[in-house]
Amino acid sequence: MVAQRLVEALRARDGAGAWRISVFAEEPRKPYDRVALTSYFSARDAEELTLGDPALWDDELVTLHRDCAVTAIDREARTVTDRLGRVHAYDELVLATGSNAAMPPIPGNDLPGVFVYRTIDDVAALRGWVEEKRRSTTTEGGWERPVRGAVIGGGLLGLEAAGALKALGAQATVIQFGTHMMDAQIDLGGGEALKRLINGMGIAVRCNTGTKEMKVSRKTGHVGRLDFADGGRLDVDVVVVATGVRPRDELARAAGLEIGERGGAVVDLACRTEDEHVWAVGEVACIEGRCIGLVAPGYAMAEVVADRLLGGEATFPGADTATKLKLQGVDVASFGDAFGRTEGAMELVYADPVAGVYKKLVLSDDARTLLGGVFVGDATPYASLRPMVGAELPGDPGAFLLPEGSGGGAPALELPDDATVCSCNNVSAGTIRSAVTEHECTDLASVKACTKAGTSCGSCLPLVKKITTTELTRAGVEVSNALCEHFELSRAQLFDAVRVADLHTFSEIIGRFGRVPEAAGADGDGTLTGEHAASGDEHVGAGRGCDICKPTIASILASLGNGHILEGEQATLQDTNDHVMANMQKDGTYSVVPRIPGGEITPDGLLVIGQVAKDFGLYTKITGGQRIDMFGARIEQLPHIWRRLVEHGFESGHAYGKSLRTVKSCVGSTWCRFGVQDSVGMAVELELRYRGLRSPHKIKLGVSGCARECAEARGKDVGVIATDKGWNVYVGGNGGFTPRHAQLLAEDLTSDELIRTIDRFLMYYIRTADRLQRTAAWVEDYEGGLEAIREVIIEDSLGIGADLDAAMVRHVGDYEDEWRAVLEDPEKLRRFGSFVNAPAEPDPDLAYVTERGQIRPATAAERAAALDAARTAGDTDPAVLTGPVVIAGSTLEVRR
């Protein structure tokens, strides 16, 4: 990564072409993003991790030698020798060899099934091993058991590796030698909070544990057990070692360069070694007495060397050691003097063990200057506070630690120009402001391209966007909130316009409020030009719209009760999933999700679903929202499947729509000895009330029968938690890429008050949120935040409470099951055909593999292997292999 940055920086500044650059890479691919290495488990495409502009390697002054490691350096002759024995001369040599994954001297560390976690090849090998173990691991009785995984090392990389094992379907146990996880970044209090969060993900943790030996399984010949120093043991099928890194300094050692006490080529603040023609950057460089295993300091070194090679005087600015854990669902960050080692430093701590939150600020002895911080469970303040290290905080520092909605509220921060916003690329707030004021960047994308801020790990992007928007506003530049090129209105403005004008079709709406883009025939003032003017078009907005405005208007019309989504013109506006009222899967088939309010279902209902899944050969799974999902339905099968379900009382679960998905609940006072209210009854009532409610994004609710929170209500858009006095309601929570805890909106409500409050909150969100904006982001962006929303919902400050109530009453009264309506309409049923000329014929390209007793889509390699085996055996003529194919081993079974 650091080598790529050096080449990029040097070519960007060397306009005269003074330097010709040769890069020798040990791996057989272009430089890639190791920070995002874990994403390779899901993406499975190495190209998605490639760094920077691919055109860099097409530059005639740059040569990338892949799979061509350098084996020797001759400092006197100023040459290097590559692995093929070729000798290359240099004027200046830069070592950017990085580091190796450290492998502690534990007996058995070379057994099959023991992996490190450093390169794409490491990750690919680990993934392949786990997937193979999942296919082959069974008990003596033939029952499948989970793959047992262990990660030795509880640092940043170890936790990411544990999360990866979990995502691959394996059990994961983290083995940490120290007192707590991430002990290099966070303190013991933060470590305890982190342990609870990790345990909550289903990952076990063993701290204060040393691994004595890795033992082989006599049955498999692979690693089978870990023996610990305290006498304990753990059965395993796979082990990942993530105990740190060691600098790749073997070339520097062999060349006689000075090596640091703990390794690494010793360099000065110009990143130059004792040899004036040899430099070192990144993890191989020992600078100021240490090697730094983070990418941001490496990038800073690359910029220094690029400047020096062009005659500059740049020096290393020091290491920004701020870190943020990249593990979905676990928010951890630390920055600055996180351990309070500065003389006279004082610590301000907020801890909520129930919510899994730990926050700490380290301040100067007068409690004014920020020195560092630790955040576990909620790292929302991290992006804004990290650039303020060394600066004086406005107001009460404790306000930055209190949860949102607690009545405190953190003061607004105005970052100084020299504050670092993007530590990966060393971009300051002043640089971002200059991109707007001097380089005329007018949106986030152009600011990123101009400054490189947010182009690495991406954790700074919210702050970059905020600074950009603020600076544009100050400069008098109107920040457009237009929906798309066809509408100057935002989604919220368009919603109100359509409602007030009482419009019911896309043609009416775009004709009344739309505009023709300049490229489509309108000049700068919106006057029609060319063939549009000649054709006599009356509306500037005449047009067909785009993939942004069409589904948005479809959602607006559905929210306003405009009839069935497949009725007339509305059918052409829908997204892929809404178009056939089912979620499309990776192989082109669909999933079927009947509604199961509150997760409550009768045995007869379970039998119906089971029989349908069995008859149609569908893969079945219990979802996170307490429903049953059936996968693998072909488009022509959907009406037949739903007819069976509807006949037995089921209706659409709207898993395909931007609408209510589920209302999750625990069993509450009905069965649980801790329950204080009937959470199931409330969940069922809420789900039946809000089913089919179309909105800017999907909506999820949760109802917990007591404060133990088994339904995870505070992770939902609307969360309800029972109290002895009634119900507390929380809003603005979600999982996903950026998890958010819901915030308290109101306490101790009666059931009627609760429903009215949720009615108003959802309707106000639907009317005012932007396109594809979750409730969490809407609450954050709303002027005045949650407190202002509370005034509208609870106190009716805008005088629209009755209007919101009436809108929800209309929705409840107008609701109809979308799939029942389709089954009763022959015209709508015509949409559900696999081919225009053969609507009842199955797609012949579908193929499946049996795994854990159910089918899954076959990979390309599995398809090819099975077909080759069939041809070789002479049992099957590929020409007659029509219809979905089930691959079992190397045989093909045609399914009609």
What is the element layout, followed by pairings?
Elements: H1 2-13, E1 21-24, H2 40-43, E2 62-65, E3 70-74, E4 79-82, E5 87-89, E6 93-95, E7 99-101, E8 114-116, H3 120-136, E9 148-152, H4 156-167, E10 171-175, H5 188-200, E11 204-206, E12 211-216, E13 223-228, E14 233-235, E15 238-241, E16 245-247, H6 250-254, E17 265-267, E18 278-280, E19 285-287, H7 295-309, E20 323-324, E21 332-336, E22 346-352, E23 357-363, E24 370-376, H8 382-385, E25 420-422, E26 427-428, H9 429-437, H10 444-451, H11 461-474, H12 491-501, H13 506-513, H14 530-534, H15 549-559, H16 576-580, E27 583-584, E28 590-592, H17 603-616, E29 619-622, E30 628-633, H18 638-647, E31 660-665, H19 679-690, E32 699-704, E33 718-723, E34 726-731, E35 743-749, H20 751-768, H21 775-781, H22 785-793, H23 801-814, H24 818-823, H25 826-829, E36 847-851, E37 854-857, H26 860-873, E38 885-888, E39 891-894
Parallel strand pairs: 1-2, 6-18, 8-15, 9-10, 9-15, 10-11, 17-19, 31-32, 32-33, 36-38
Antiparallel strand pairs: 3-4, 4-5, 7-16, 12-13, 13-14, 20-21, 21-24, 22-23, 23-24, 25-26, 27-28, 28-30, 29-30, 33-34, 34-35, 36-37, 38-39
Helix pairs in contact: 1-7, 9-11, 12-15, 20-23
